[in-house]
Amino acid sequence: SNGELTPWFQAKVDMRTGSIIGAEALVRWNHPTRGLLMPGSFIPLFERNGLVTSIDLHVFEEVCKALRSWQLRNLPTHIISCNFSQLHFDRKDFPQQLAEIAARYDVPHALLEVEITESAIMKNPEAAWMQIIQLKQMGFKTAIDDFGTGYSSLGLVQMLNTDVIKVDRSFVQRDLPGQRAQVVLGNIIRMALELDMAVICEGVETAEQAAILMRLGCFKAQGFFYAKPEPERDFEARLALQPF
């Protein structure tokens, strides 16, 4: 209500050209006395007390406002993804909530992507499966975030027909130069593409990592090598430099 919680935007890029193909909205708390707070310092608390659902929907609404503003000012518009707690997927009205917010700002559902982590899905796979089906039927994009960190990754791919798999940063940052890591990651990329899912690798921080990923067949990335999370105004300036 005080406007202290705002989305920052981290660009997703096509590594072949460096051009923006979308962004992820990441919440930041502009605390009146403690300054800018990262999600790790407050989201766990709100997960425990249930208030995280209100924060998620607030960020989603702010993203819809931003997309509408960019459209009205003829800035390039791309798919923006928002993170949602597993708690939303226990509510049958969750997809309708998102549809009502998007309609409020006349934002096409195809520009909005719902991200849920692999670990959150595993808490209630059946509920997540039903919600993802409904979201996709309504035209929203869906993504499995932090893919590869759990013990049921392959089962999730088989069960959940999401649009995007976001490969966890640990694959890129920890072992990528190693041959074994490249074999594993290369097979994940090929499997996803054969299932008609897009693949985005997170945590790309060096030119070497980008080169290896492209050699393995992944051309979409998110990471500090290309862009850090930034306030809406700075991301708008980045958009203004992009061709339509």
Order of helices and strands: EEEHHEHEHHEHEHHEHEH
Question: How would a textbook summarize the main sheet?
Answer: 8 strands, mixed, barrel
Number of strands: 9
Classify the beta-strand content into a percent band. Answer: 15-25%
Q: Tell me, rounded to a whole number, the average pLDDT.
A: 92
Oligomer description:
single chain
What structural class do you assign from the helix and strand content?
alpha/beta
Helix content: 40-55%
| Total helical elements | 10
Shape: globular
Span between N and C termini?
35 Å
Question: Could you name the ranges where pLDDT drops below 50 across 5 or more consecutive residues?
Answer: none
Nearest-angstrom radius of gyration?
18 Å
| Lateral arrangement of strands in the main beta sheet | 1-2-4-5-6-7-8-9
Give the helices and strands, then pairings.
Blueprint: E1 5-14, E2 20-31, E3 35-37, H1 43-49, H2 52-72, E4 79-83, H3 94-104, E5 112-117, H4 118-123, H5 125-137, E6 141-147, H6 153-159, E7 164-167, H7 169-173, H8 179-194, E8 198-202, H9 207-215, E9 220-222, H10 232-240
Parallel strand pairs: 2-4, 4-5, 5-6, 6-7, 7-8, 8-9
Antiparallel strand pairs: 1-2, 1-9, 2-3
Helix pairs in contact: 2-3
In short:
The chain is of the alpha/beta class. It is 43% helix and 23% strand.
Can you put this structure into words, describing what you see?
With 244 residues, the protein is an alpha/beta fold. The chain has helices at residues 43-49, 52-72, 94-104, 118-123, 125-137, 153-159, 169-173, 179-194, 207-215, 232-240, and strands spanning 5-14, 20-31, 35-37, 79-83, 112-117, 141-147, 164-167, 198-202, 220-222. An eight-stranded mixed β-barrel has the order 1-2-4-5-6-7-8-9, surrounded by four helices. Helix 2 (52-72) packs parallel to helix 3 (94-104). It is globular, with a radius of gyration of 18 Å. It starts with a strand and ends with a helix. The model has no long low-confidence stretch (mean pLDDT 92).
